[in-house]
Amino acid sequence: MGHQAANGSSQAKPYKFLIYGETGRIGGVLGRLCQAQGIGYAYGSGRLENRESIFGQPGVRQLDPSLQRHKRDGQAQRGLVETIRANMVGTLTLADLCREKGLVLINYATGCIFEYDSGHPLGSDVGSFYSKTKAMVEDLLKNYENVCTLCVRMPISFDLSNPRNFITKICAYEKVVNIPNSMTILEP
């Protein structure tokens, strides 16, 4: 498997993916999928908001947003700042650096549907602070010609013991609203 160079010639060099978010559910699934398919990949270890670390030592380990909701007092504010750094500053920095290097960025991340119909326009209720940062960065990424955003919605898997599985989460809700929505099946 190879890719085509900008000048149209075919190169034998195979694709290699740089995956950020190794400790997250989606980053972990993507790594396992690449490994199972024999696709080259590496997990990053640098901070996304630090431009110098992104391509020097690839990567970042992001905080789990579900953990940030449970922090108290000063820790809660620090969680908000970390969410901004990871979801907005880091993502925009990566998009900008990829653009400078002529690389395509596939922003495969959790996202929300921010409107259900014409009676619920964008801004009427984008949900949690985490969702707001995702909505803002998605809107800004539309200006980058090298970015393709793919949103994961309500990730489900066959593992019902996984606390990040949407089916596991929704089973614990006191009230469930019956509104049509989309879901993403995550299985390596």
List descriptors:
6 helices, two-stranded parallel ribbon, alpha/beta, Rossmann fold, 188 residues, 8 strands, two-stranded antiparallel sheet
Secondary structure category: alpha/beta
Beta-strand residue fraction: 5-15%
Low-pLDDT windows of residues: 1-7, 57-75
By CATH, the topology is: Rossmann fold
For the biggest sheet, the summary is: 2 strands, antiparallel
CATH-assigned homologous superfamily: NAD(P)-binding Rossmann-like Domain
How does the overall form come out from the CA principal axes? globular
- CATH second-level architecture: 3-Layer(aba) Sandwich
How far apart lie the N and C ends? Answer: 20 Å
Strand order in the largest sheet: 1-2
Portion of residues within helices: 25-40%
Number of helices: 6
Order of helices and strands: EEEHEHHHEHEEHE
Tally of extended strands? 8
Rg, Å, rounded: 18 Å
InterPro entries: dTDP_dehydrorham_reduct (IPR005913), Epimerase_deHydtase (IPR001509), NAD(P)-bd_dom_sf (IPR036291)
GO molecular function: methionine adenosyltransferase regulator activity
Pfam family, one: Epimerase
Protein name: NAD-dependent epimerase/dehydratase domain-containing protein
